[in-house]
Amino acid sequence: MKRKAACLATTIFMTLTATSPASHATGEPPARIRQTVDAVVRPIMTKNRIAGMAVGVVADGKPYVFNYGVASRATGRPVTANTLFELGSVSKTLTATLVSYAQASGRLSLSDKTGQYLPALRGHPFGEVPLVDLGTHTPGGLPLQVPDDIHDNAQLMRYLGAWRPTHAPGTYRTYSNISIGTLGLITAKSFGQDFATLMQGRLFPALGMTHTYINVPQAKMADYAQGYTKAGAPIRMAPGVLAAEAYGVKSTASDMLRFVRANMAMVPLEGKLQRAVLATHTGYFKAGPMTQDLIWEQYPYPVPLQSLLDGNSAAMVLHGAPVAPITPPQAPSAHAWINKTGSTNGFGAYVAFIPQKRMGIVILANKNFPMEERVSAAYRILTALAGDAR
């Protein structure tokens, strides 16, 4: 009976709504945008039994948010403009923004060696890794996850001290939470603050992201969506070493759309921060079909869907690949599809934007559904709307 009630609640709240927070969105969306997003998202939710989704679209520079379903099957609470989703590895793009801001502020340089900031690693191979390699998954071979037996930063430093590269830094890409997570630690240290405090107290407010958190305040817990495993069991992310730095951000579709627009220089930011945001689009390595930026991944636009599927495939995450350094690094380009995927055990996310077209998309769901479906959905929506962008 409870399951029937939950399904009924999902059906009731599957009705599409477009939200327009004063600072983030622009009135009622044109019918074509609403219909295009609806036609793509509804079948995905049904096929994957997703309880709730929020999809944000920037079309012709204007942001629109569409909410579907429920944030919690147990309560039937609908997804709203205030619903918080776990971003998973999309969080890394915000960490990269802080790193870039630290460099613009003279607190570090991406050419610096890791050991300059982590004295315990001086004289060890990890201490010789340039910071840029930590931000591009190219330090020389690290696992995807922090090992289960590491429970604090002291144990992490011992692990990194014993680490031995399987490839020379800057020659091989192995996607890893450890590399960008350690870079996040270093960046916070360069500011003399705790990472979560720095992000929540400085970066998020400076970006105008007023509903974005690493540690969700008690007063906002009612807005935190319930995640669901592939089997449908309720789950949320657990704390862990480097979780905050690598995959720990929770945000709304509206806030993430603001971040997308900031990445296309469409919102007013302090000059140094704006330069830092755009600098994260600098290309450092060619890896398969894509160019590896500071966490962001980009493709020359227009781009075939298959290239996006290949670049965002499980193989690119789970298996290493040789890279070709770009010397000098590739300057940020407006003629690019720039993207990042993100997942936790109970949430799935995808963000992409095309600066030259003044278009972008944010897909947030309270279930981890296949990456190729997220990428294909974004591609279908943006391709269909490209005629609306001028």
TrEMBL record:
Alphabetized Gene3D superfamilies for the sequence: DD-peptidase/beta-lactamase superfamily (3.40.710.10)
Reaction(s) the record says it catalyses: a beta-lactam + H2O = a substituted beta-amino acid
Gene Ontology biological-process entries: antibiotic catabolic process; response to antibiotic
EC annotation from Swiss-Prot or TrEMBL: 3.5.2.6
Molecular function in Gene Ontology: beta-lactamase activity
Transmembrane stretches, start-end: none
InterPro entries: AmpC, AmpC-like, Beta-lactam-related, Beta-lactam/transpept-like, Beta-lactam_class-C_AS
Name of the featured protein: Beta-lactamase
